[in-house]
Design brief:
By secondary structure, the chain is mostly helical. It has a single domain, classed as Up-down Bundle (Vanadium-containing Chloroperoxidase, domain 1). Helices cover 80% and strands 0% of the residues. The chain contains 7 helices and no strands. Helix 4 runs antiparallel to helix 7.
Length: 206
């Protein structure tokens, strides 16, 4: 364990107490399989939009898959400290930090782009940012990850969201907007023609 990882872990371990440990375990569980599946179902029922559901599902699976590849490349063992949670597999980068950043980060992106209520927007952005942060911190506190695992897991998560939005989400979104624009233009054109026809008939009657 290097100086930076050791300093962060020693600081967090000095805060250990039953209540804080329970809180950290709850935060860590916010990216468990059960929670993610439940959240995906809630998103589907809330938005009633298959595309949004597929975006979240595919993005989460992409993050998990990339994390598995990266762990296989780096093969960093987990910290040899007194762990407060049982984990297996390699340590770098943190899957919890990466998936949390991808899942809750995409929610933040959608909030920024779609929510009009400024006060609620700020509150939700801060809330989801804190969730991402505390999930990462919980992994160090529980002794299952180094601080650098979490930092790079978060960084890889940010990159994943950025690339997903740029090359997948935005393209689909623009296509749907173009279709809507065409429909709006055709509706406007047809309504203008109908107005001209009606006004023409009125003039003839006179």
């Amino acid at each position: 364990m290097n100086f930076f990882d050791s300093a962060i872990y020693n600081f967090l371990s000095s805060l250990q107490n039953p209540v804080f440990t329970m809180f950290m375990r709850v935060m860590s569980s916010l990216v468990s399989v059960t929670v993610i599946i439940t959240a995906l179902l809630c998103i589907f029922l809330l938005f009633k939009n298959k595309k949004i559901f597929l975006y979240f599902t595919s993005l989460t699976f992409i993050a998990k898959f990339l994390n598995m590849i990266l762990k296989g490349i780096f093969k960093r063992p987990r910290p040899s400290v007194a762990r407060l949670s049982f984990e297996t597999g390699y340590s770098f980068p943190s899957a919890h930090a990466m998936v949390a950043t991808v899942f809750y980060g995409f929610i933040i992106y959608l909030i920024i782009k779609n929510m009009k209520n400024k006060k609620l927007k700020k509150f939700l952005i801060v809330l989801h940012t804190l969730i991402i942060a505390f999930i990462g911190i919980s992994r160090i506190y529980l002794g299952v990850h180094y601080a650098t695992d979490v930092i790079f897991g978060t960084l890889f998560g940010v990159i994943t969201v950025f690339l997903f939005v740029k090359f997948i989400y935005k393209n689909d979104w623009l296509e749907s907007e173009k279709v809507e624009e065409k429909n709006d233009k055709s509706k406007t054109t047809s309504s203008k023609k109908a107005t001209k026809t009606i006004s023409g008939k009125k003039v003839r009657r006179k």
